[in-house]
Sequence to fold (170 residues):
Amino acid sequence: MTDPSTIINPPPQPLFSVRRLVIVAILAVATAALVVTCAGTDSPGGGTGCSHPVVAGFDPCPGARILRQATVGVELKPGYDGRISVNGVEVPEDQMEGAILPGTEAFAQLSAEERARGPRPNNKNVVKVQSGPGKVVPKFTGQVKVEISYWKETDGRDNADEFDYTVFVT
Fold:
């Protein structure tokens, strides 16, 4: 067994060592970058801002840069329905995110009432699209104009309002 009196304690470290200063500097830069990134999400690229009275969330925000295969659109507040057009091309409801297509297992599990509500019976307020082969928007390129038409579900599409915004493909 080792005698405790023979254990040598390491010398105390100085309060301001080079190593500690470098670690603090790295943490400060990382924190600053995080703050700048988060603060910039409200209106990226000088866009119109990332808010609208009936929108619960943009995907992505107006003025943002996206990849060709990104999802584009909005989530409306509950009780709203909507449609999306990309560069003037209206996206069919069955190509929108969350659509449940006839002939699928998920469609077979829907009640008659849900089937009557269309291809998006449980998420009418999600108005998003992802480009891809066989779709009316095969890929996003350059400047993408996203047009959202929305209405209260109780009022119907005849009482729709619209807004649009632009995103850019990187």
Notes: The first helix runs from residue 18 to 39. The chain has a mean pLDDT of 85. The first strand starts at residue 55 and ends at 59. The chain has two domains: 16-46, 47-169.
